[in-house]
Amino acid sequence: MSKCPGFFINIGKEARDLLHKGYGQQPPVHFHQQFIDMNCDLSCDVSCRIEDIVPGFGTAFKLIAPYTGKVELQYLHDYAAVTAGTGVIANAFRGYDPIISFSGVVGSTPISLGADLVYDVSAKTFNRFDAGLSLRFSSVVASVTLNDKLNTLRAAFYHTVNPLNQTVVAAELNHSFSINDTIFTMGSQQAIFPSTLVKARVNTKGKVGALIQQQFFQMLSLSIAGEVDFHPNSLNWIPKIGLTIALRP
């Protein structure tokens, strides 16, 4: 028997990490301070999980300060994984709103199907409603998801070319039904040294990005990322450069 490959957030995770992780995205709400001509952004992401509080059940805690905090109860079976939780989410007008969340995945390692729901108790509306399908093979991972309350179709592909030097290629197609807009992104990565990883990506909107990640010991990593917008109608053609430092205990 093979364990269920994870909760809904893991559907398409490999392609998302290669194409987006480390390029300077911040959580939806984060600390921002401007000192004359210098900007400072700061957020804190803390999570922990306790397995087998009773057979098959575990509990998890996650905090992204000052964006959200959540406590979850998780059930993991050979062919199913379900999590239900409660917490708070930041609101620009009311401080923090209570939420109730539910997500689950059914299937096995080759194929799995999942859904993710987040209900805002104060607004009495669903903040999130996503669904997805994932296919996994020895060196290929493919997924199709419906995000943004089923408004965005995302298809992703991830292929490991050479695991010895971490050579990987990935592609992602995003289509928004509400505005009838499609973006295709493709990228690759390779470890030029055991502790140095290089990534690059390009999309059909004319944006080209590259990233160099240097690992120091096992706890500390430093990433330098840059992006240039070559779209003919873009007014923001000045290259963007970012620096990220990650410390993992």
Provide a short characterization of the protein structure:
The chain is mainly β and 249 residues long. The protein has one helix at residues 13-20, and strands at 31-35, 38-42, 44-54, 57-65, 68-77, 80-91, 95-107, 111-120, 125-136, 140-147, 152-162, 167-176, 181-193, 196-203, 207-216, 220-229, 240-247.
Radius of gyration: 19 Å
The helix fraction, in percent, is under 10%
Beta-strand share of residues = over 45%
Secondary-structure-based class equals mainly beta
What is the strand arrangement across the widest sheet?
3-4-5-6-7-8-9-10-11-12-13-14-15-16-17
Plain-language structure description:
The chain has 249 residues and is mostly beta strands. It has one domain (8-25, 43-247): Porin, CATH 2.40.160. The protein contains one helix and 17 strands. The chain has one helix at 13-20; strands spanning 31-35, 38-42, 44-54, 57-65, 68-77, 80-91, 95-107, 111-120, 125-136, 140-147, 152-162, 167-176, 181-193, 196-203, 207-216, 220-229, 240-247. The strands form two sheets. The protein has a 15-stranded antiparallel sheet with strand order 3-4-5-6-7-8-9-10-11-12-13-14-15-16-17, covered by helices on one side. Strands 1-2 form a two-stranded antiparallel ribbon. The two termini are 32 Å apart. The model is unreliable at 1-6 and 26-36 (pLDDT under 50).
